[in-house]
Design a protein that fits this description.
It is a single chain. The protein is an alpha+beta fold and about 150 residues long. The chain is about 45% helix and about 15% strand. A four-stranded mixed beta sheet has the order 1-2-3-4.
């Protein structure tokens, strides 16, 4: 599945400081906008790592450093095209076309000759998880859709 997750804390802090200064915000004003204390901003900018995550996300949100895209799959609208199973995700009100290739279904979900929709539905959670990872990671097709391929799984 997924490898070890790492955060470049120093890079995040430095980028946040540069953005604050670029936006001509004082630490006091940033604290007001982020609804945290001025000492919290000071500790954050000095690289302290014991700050509450909610405080960090508030600070980063004010500075425009959060990617709040989220892909959900509220409908069971999956259909087979013969070469893939196509389904729709939603990011807010935006519809995102998603698909998983026949090859991926056959290679990773024992699909050899079986009904592609049945295989998709039996493994929907894992397939949607991979589509979500590709979407949030910006790994889209030219038309903006998400295609889960065998090498993605």
């Amino acid at each position: 599945m997924e490898g070890q997750f790492r955060i470049n804390w120093h890079g995040i802090v430095e980028e946040a400081k540069q953005r604050r200064k670029g936006q001509r915000l004082t630490q006091q004003r940033l604290a007001q906008l982020a609804r945290v204390s001025t000492p919290t901003i000071s500790r954050f900018e000095s690289g302290a790592k014991d700050i509450q995550l909610s405080s960090v996300t508030s600070i980063l949100g004010v500075l425009g450093m959060l990617d709040e895209r989220a892909l959900i799959f509220p409908d069971d609208d999956a259909r087979s095209t013969g070469e893939a199973v196509v389904f729709t995700g939603k990011d807010g009100k935006k519809a995102v076309r998603c698909a998983i290739s026949r090859e991926a279904l056959e290679d990773h979900f024992k699909g050899g000759g079986k009904d592609l929709l049945k295989i998709f539905r039996a493994n929907r959670e894992r397939i949607e998880h991979e589509a979500r990872r590709k979407y949030v990671g910006g790994r889209l097709e030219r038309d903006g859709s998400v295609l889960v391929k065998s090498e993605d799984l």
